[in-house]
Design a protein that fits this description.
With 457 residues, the protein is an alpha+beta fold. It folds into 3 domains: 96 residues, 3-Layer(aba) Sandwich (Rossmann fold), CATH 3.40.50.20; 79 residues, 2-Layer Sandwich (Dna Ligase, domain 1), CATH 3.30.1490; 236 residues, ATP-grasp fold, B domain (D-amino Acid Aminotransferase, Chain A, domain 1, 2-Layer Sandwich), CATH 3.30.470.20. Helix 4 packs across helix 5. The chain is built from 13 helices and 16 strands. The strands form 3 sheets. An 8-stranded antiparallel sheet has the order 13-12-9-10-11-14-16-15, sandwiched between helices. The protein has a 4-stranded parallel sheet with strand order 3-2-1-4, with helices on both faces. The protein has a 4-stranded antiparallel sheet with strand order 5-8-6-7, sandwiched between helices. The relative contact order is 0.13. The N and C termini lie far apart (60 Å).
Length: 457
């Protein structure tokens, strides 16, 4: 039986979902770079042939740790689904002579390199500048047109985002973004291979989206993601995922599969994603490419990644299209030829729709909840106002334990302040948007109040 070294770190699809599907294809040897969710840790012994954790030796190169472990277990493939381990695993695969994202993987991780590559290829994107100091940021605010968005070059999950409406705000934005990157690293949401990555930023012009020109129904956000895979250097699109409007500044609230755009619009979106991915010269990896949708058919590529979409994107695709992306990708790394779609799948190819909602203490209009609440998954599932044909569940490994106080939403910290993750199945994409809109409005009223709020010791 083939052997796979599974490198686990924060982020990506739920590890419980991914690990079981890799284990169905091969003997799994787990290398944990971060702590496993409690619910998954209990099942590891039955899923994995061996488990190991990365040694806490600061000066030891992570690629060396991965390659040594791969040789020790005789791995035929090395896989990760975490944004923070993509570059290290790609380099380890290169050294081992195994299939992987390739030597250009950092181009799909470092937003500075990514954007510079697209600029050379003439790919539509917001104007930007790479910045590594306050002085460079202040200079960029005079060269670009405000409002601007400052974000960390190696971040994920909309963390460390700061909007700069005028040059005078640059100093505060720089300080706050750096603080959040430090906080994120303490939570395990940080690049694991590149030293000093938390010091690298880009600042870009904020382009104006126009969702109503792309979607027939209300409630959609103004950008989509093209989910796909690169097979021996060839990009293979799988489908489009849509969004609900983000929470200020740009924190994702919900993702919906499939995205209900017209066939003509989808074709143009996929063409742009293909140009963006091809420019990065990736070899074998999942891809997740975000594209902003503007007025009069205009589009801009925001970013791409050399891995599958995070949160519940992968399980959603499996539910509505019947594609086990994790299992198929594992087969690909092991030398098989999975039956990838010959074109990007559309709503007409789907069996219903699915979506995931990040629970943040923010109302639908962007205002914070009036009081603190405690997370209670059973209350949410039991009383949420979803349609008769919809089914709602809570993703335990991506949610706080029941009884936890829902964190106050911090615009700079983004998804770091989430309380839970909900999964919804429905008959069509618009039903997911409708149900999630109702759920967002209802959550602060159905979750129990935090009775300790305002009580002083």
């Amino acid at each position: 039986m083939s052997k796979v070294l599974y490198v686990h770190a924060k982020g990506g699809p739920p590890v419980g979902h991914a690990l079981t599907r890799v284990a169905a294809r091969a003997a799994v040897h787990l290398l944990a770079l971060s702590e496993l969710p409690v619910s998954v840790a209990e099942d590891v012994a039955g899923l994995c042939a061996s488990t190991a954790t990365a040694p806490e030796v600061p000066d030891r190169d992570l690629v060396e740790v991965i390659t040594a472990r791969a040789r020790e277990v005789g791995a035929d493939a090395v896989v990760t689904f975490s944004e923070y381990a993509v570059v290290a695993v790609a380099e380890a695969c290169r050294r081992l002579g195994l299939k992987g994202a390739g030597s250009a993987a950092a181009l799909a991780r470092d937003k500075r390199l990514m954007r510079a590559t697209w600029e050379r290829h003439g790919i539509e994107q917001p104007r930007f500048r790479a910045v590594t100091s306050l002085e460079e940021l202040e200079r960029a605010t005079t060269e670009l047109s405000c409002p601007l968005l400052l974000k960390a070059a190696w971040s994920a999950g909309s963390t460390a985002h700061q909007i700069i409406d005028r040059p005078a705000q640059a100093q505060h934005a720089w300080r706050r973004s750096r603080e959040v990157m430090t906080e994120s690293a303490q939570l395990g949401f940080a690049e694991l291979h590149v030293r000093g990555a938390s010091e690298d930023f880009i600042v870009e012009e904020i382009v104006t989206g126009r969702a109503e020109e792309w979607f027939d129904g209300p409630g959609w956000g103004d950008y989509v993601s093209v989910e796909g895979v690169v097979v021996d250097g060839v990009f293979r699109p799988v489908c489009l995922s849509g969004r609900m409007p983000t929470v200020a500044p740009f924190t994702e609230r919900a993702g919906i599969t499939p995205a209900a755009v017209t066939a003509g619009a989808q074709h143009r979106i996929v063409e742009l994603a293909e140009r963006a991915v091809d420019a990065l010269r990736l070899e074998n990896c999942g891809t997740h490419t975000e594209i902003k949708l503007g007025a009069d058919g205009r589009m801009w590529v925001i970013e791409t990644a050399a891995r599958f979409g995070g949160a519940m994107t992968v399980p959603q695709i499996e539910e509505v299209f019947g594609l086990d992306l994790v299992g198929m990708f594992t087969d690909q790394l092991l030398g098989a030829s999975p039956d990838w779609p010959t074109r990007a799948l559309t709503p007409a190819d789907a069996t219903g729709a699915a979506g995931s909602l990040v629970v943040l203490a923010v109302n639908g209009d962007g205002t914070p909840w009036p009081g603190r609440r405690r997370w209670d998954s059973s209350v949410v599932v039991r009383t949420a106002p979803v349609g008769a044909g919809s089914t709602l569940s809570v993703v335990g490994e991506s949610s706080l334990p029941d009884g936890s106080v829902v964190p106050e939403y911090d615009p700079a910290a983004g998804a770091n302040t989430m309380a839970g993750l909900c999964l919804l199945s429905a008959d069509e994409p618009q039903s997911v948007v409708r149900d999630f809109t109702a759920l967002v409005d209802t959550l602060p009223h159905i979750l129990p109040a935090d009775v300790t709020e305002g009580v002083h010791a």
